[in-house]
Design goal:
- α1 packs parallel to α5.
- The protein is built from 5 helices and 7 strands, in the order ββαβαβααβββα.
- The longest helix is centred in the N-terminal third of the chain and has 30 residues.
- With 208 residues, it is α/β, with parallel strands linked by helices.
- The chain is globular.
Length: 208
């Protein structure tokens, strides 16, 4: 679906064969999504390399993930790698507030689930319950699939990591006109970037 920022059905690039025959045409939306997917693959590679290095050297390396608006992308990217069993312990898909409250063991704090205090609490609870070294949590609003804006909150996502360096949370906000898939790719990439940056910091305390 081409909506929001993109004009539907208008190719802006094409793939040609050796004989000059057109093999496929790409819309602007498709090109943007391909770029985001490439960025996500690179972010996954960096994170999994760090986790594998920690596994090999006996450092903290076990990871659990809780995702909502990323739609399973984090789980698919992390679990789909060779050697994932060395570092990937589990994932949870907590889409509604009841599922998040089950992880917390109580009601959500006021203000909804898309805020840094909630994702921080979820990350700390998941880290303890899953008995892992790192817990990565994202909660956001990916919006409608076609990019037709319904709310300025579409594209908003809060992400948190809990582990040996304590708990860190960030908020990202992409254009509400982007499609759901673009938001999901952005959210997953930013979550992995946060985890990568977190693991590179000195260890000083533990939240788990």
């Amino acid at each position: 679906i081409n909506g929001g920022l993109y004009r539907p059905g208008q190719p802006v690039a094409q793939l040609t064969g050796a004989d000059g025959e057109t093999l496929r045409r790409f819309s602007k939306l498709e090109l943007v999504q391909l770029t985001l997917q490439k960025d996500l693959v690179e972010a996954t590679s960096e994170v999994t390399t760090l986790l594998q290095q920690r596994h090999a050297s006996g450092q903290p390396h076990r990871l659990a993930v809780l995702e909502t608006s990323a739609g399973g992308l984090l789980t698919a990217m992390l679990a789909g790698r060779a050697g994932a069993s060395n570092y990937f312990a589990q994932s949870r898909f907590a889409y509604d507030n009841h599922a998040k409250e089950q992880v917390l063991g109580g009601p959500l704090p006021p203000g909804g689930s898309v805020n840094e205090s909630v994702v921080s609490a979820l990350a700390e609870a998941l880290c303890r319950e899953a008995a892992v070294d790192y817990a990565l949590v994202e909660s956001g609003m990916a919006g409608p699939p076609d990019g037709q804006r319904r709310s300025l909150k579409s594209g908003l996502c809060c992400i948190a990591v809990a582990g040996p360096q304590g708990t860190r949370a960030v908020t990202v906000h992409r254009s509400p006109w982007l499609t759901r898939r673009e938001h999901q790719l952005h959210f997953a990439r930013e979550a992995l970037n946060l985890l990568s940056h977190y693991m590179k910091q000195p260890t000083y305390i533990s939240s788990c």
